[in-house]
Amino acid sequence: MPDREPTAKFDRSHVQSRLLVALAKRIGRAQGDLHSALREITEAAATALQVVRCGVWLYDESRANLSCVDLFDGSTGEHSSDLHLSAGTTPRYFAALEHERAIAAVDACNDPRTSEFRDVYLKPHSITSMLDAPIRIRGQMIGVVCNEHCGEPRPWSADEMNLAGTFADFVGLAIEADEHHQQKLKAQRLEGQLRQAQKLKSMGLLAGGIAHDFNNLLVGILGNASLALEELAEDAPLRPLIEDIRAASTRAAELAKEMLAYSGRATLRSAPVDLNALVRETAQLLSAASTEPVPIDLPLDPTSPAVLGDPAGLQRVVMNLMTNAAEATSAGHGSVTVGTARVSLPAYDVSEFLLGERLGPGHYIALTVADDGPGMDATAKEHLFDPFFTTKTEGRGLGLAVVLGIVSSHRGAIEVISERTRGTRITILLPASAEAATPEATLPPTPARRPQRSGAILIADDEVLVRAVTRRILERGGYRVFEAGDGHEALELFRAHRAELVAVVLDLTMPRVSGQEALCALRKLTPEMPVLLTSGYSHETLPPELVSGPHTAFLQKPFNPGSLLDELDKLHA
To answer: In angstroms, rounded to a whole number, what is the distance separating the alpha carbons of residues 475 and 483?
Structure first.
């Protein structure tokens, strides 16, 4: 009878080759899904090698422990991944893997290379023989594929040893492919974040420029309306109309302030703020104001330090986020969760965050606001921080655009995770404060004492309308006025009338010589001269030493007659 062994061997080799080719194709299609690829490999290895179990074990970062990321049990057809082993207790096993294509242990309990597993793994799982092959990536062993046999001790052929090594190579290729896929996704995310940041920066510059020019116009409207009301009797027919003009101008000024906040150029005061207390206070306000209160869970970290920021700005952030979350939930069914936690960079993952500024290493506080509402689709997420974008039927305003602007001004970052039907979670990182938050002291009011207003004041502003209304206000207040249309003209008038001047009202954004340059020149000529700086932007865009002197103050445009005169009175006090 002819010898059929070579034919049988050829048939097995042919079947195995087809299996490996099919497996390679399936792994290729599973790009980005390492879990599925490993399941394919362990099932194929268990079938080809005819073993009861096949598992993929990988080192942790310290290379001190092995974790089973997928274990296929052929007797049940099930996968699991809840086993862990210490690499330090089995030195001979790992020393052998470093030098061999595969460890073929016929009697695993007594083989010197595998006997170290006898009591902790082999006997508890009734394993008699093992065929283990190292997983290598770029020449470094990262784990092992374990093929486990139960029953009578089993000898392993050279072909089986080679096949076990091939399956281990497949695992290495699958892991490399997954790493490449994850790097590609990360690059795409970073590119998307860069595009979003550039778009928001451009829109922020536009919004800030519009707000600046808008504020200059509002100085004329609001100032002249206020001056007109001072001249009109209480029963004058025109008084209600001018009051409406002043009210509309005030609302327009609030909108301009929001635009400055969005552009990251709003006036901010930096102080240690108890974020936990701010969240609790806001939650109480929302509950009191809502006709159908939404349950708000507050898992706040009691050990969380204060954050460094502007109390009013941070309260606005918390209020906007909590209001949006509450409105997104179903009435009577949804809930909102607002939590705080301490995090440290670079250990904390910020790959998904939109960075207001590049975050440096250090300690931060994470504020997370989550709801179980309908969530957002990709389009809504892409435009979430655009001014006036809303998913509400009656929504309007700057909304989350202002939140992003304030977070940027605080050198923070923001992350949005949202899916349709799965709710939304927004996390904000804010720098932690080295100092504890302290309640602001309330001083007893002191009677207002109006100083004697006299002397001359120099106004320097390139806007004719602003100069005109400022002149009217100052002249009605008792001052004489000199006007300059830019910084160069202001310096010439200052040198000519220095002895007559009691103060200078100086706009910061002017042609030829800027307000900042003019201020430095004035300080060299007369260091003690009171100077009131004005701008359609905010003093946050200036060096702190420029506005912190004893003879310098800042007044945000638009201003009304009372605030202008009050600031000058304070400078003279």
So the answer is: 12
In whole angstroms, give the CA distance from residue 207 to residue 191: 24
Whole-model pTM? 0.52
Alpha-carbon distance of 230 to 239, in angstroms, equals 10
Name the token pair of 363.
């300690």
Contact present, 453 and 474 (Cβ < 8 Å): no
b or e along 200-219 (b: 16 or more beta carbons within 10 Å of the residue's beta carbon)? beebbeebbeebbebbbbbb
Helix, strand, coil distribution of the chain in percent, nearest 5? 45, 20, 35
Compute, in degrees rounded to 10, the torsion defined by CA atoms 402, 407, 409, 413.
Answer: -130
Give whole-number Cα distances, 384 to 185, 323, 421, in Å: 21, 15, 17
DSSP 432: B
Mean pLDDT of 316-342: 84
Nearest to 537 by CA among 199, 220, 214, 269: 214
Spatial distance between the Cα atoms of 209 and 204, rounded to a whole number of angstroms: 8
Contact in structure between 524 and 539 (CB atoms under 8 Å): no
Amino acid 9: pLDDT:
47
C-alpha–C-alpha distance, residues 190 and 506, integer Å:
43
Q: Which residues of 44-80 are buried (b: 16+ CB within 10 A; e: fewer)?
A: bbbebbebbbbbbbbbeeeeeebebbbbbbbeeeeee
Residue type, 389: F
Tokens of residue 128, six digits: 């008699």
Q: Distance (Å, rounded) from C-alpha 164 to C-alpha 166?
A: 5
Angle at 298 between CA 292 and CA 302, to 5 degrees: 155
**Is pLDDT above 60 for 3?**
no
Yes or no: say if 211 and 259 are a contact pair by the CB < 8 Å rule: yes
Decide if 532 contacts 553 (C-beta within 8 A): yes
Structural tokens at position 375: 């969530």
Q: Which of 27, 84, 89, 25 is nearest to 55 (CA)?
A: 84
Least confident of 43-47, 419-423, 564-568: 419-423
Residue type, 184: K
19-23, 181-185, 317-321, 401-405: least confidently modelled range: 19-23
Q: What is the predicted pLDDT for the residue at 443?
A: 42
Choose among 410, 426, 412, 299: nearest CA to 345: 412
Which of the two residues, 22 and 310, has the higher pLDDT score? 310
Give the C-alpha separation, 433 to 116, whole Å. Answer: 52
- 383 or 467, which is more confident: 467
For residue 434 the two structure tokens come to 């080295």
| Number of alpha carbons in the 13 Å side-chain half-sphere of residue 221 | 19
Tokens of residue 276, six digits: 């936990």
CA 373-377-378 angle, 5° bins:
145
Write the CB contacts of 408 (distance below 8 Å, at least 6 apart in sequence): 264, 356, 357
Token duo for residue 373: 């509402």
